[in-house]
Amino acid sequence: MELKASLGQLKQIKPAHLKGIGTPLLVLAALAMIILPMPAFLLDILFTFNIALALVVLLVAIYSDRPLDFAAFPTVLLVATLLRLALNVASTRVVLLEGHNGGDAAGKVIEAFGSVVIGGNYAVGLVVFLILIIINFAVVTKGAGRISEVSARFTLDAMPGKQMAIDADLNAGLLTQEEARSRRAEVTREADFYGAMDGASKFVKGDAIAGILILVINIVGGFIIGMAQHGLDFSSAVEIYTLLTIGDGLVAQIPGLLLSIAAALMVTRQNESGDMGEMVMGQMFDSPKALTIAAAVMFIMGIVPGMPHLVFLSCAVMAGAGAYFIKKKQETDRARALEVAKAGPVEQRDAQPKELSWDDVQHVDTIGLEVGYRLIPLVDKGQGGELLGRIKGVRKKLSQELGFLVPAVHIRDNLDLSPNAYRISLMGVSSGEAEIRHDCELAINPGQVYGKLDGIETKDPAFGLDAVWIAPEMREHAQTLGYTVVDASTVVATHISQLLSNNAAKLLGYEEVQQLLEMLGKHSPKLVDGFIPDVMPLGSVVKVMQNLLNEGVSIRDMKTIVQTLLEYGPKSSDTEVLTAAVRIALKRMIVQEISGPELEIPVITLAPELEQMLHQSMQATGGDGPNIEPSLAERMQKSLVDATQRQEMVGQPAILLTSGMLRSTLSRFVKHTIPNLRVISYQEVPDEKQIRIVSAVGQ
Question: According to the CATH classification, is domain 363-502 in 3.40.30.60?
Answer without folding.
Answer: yes
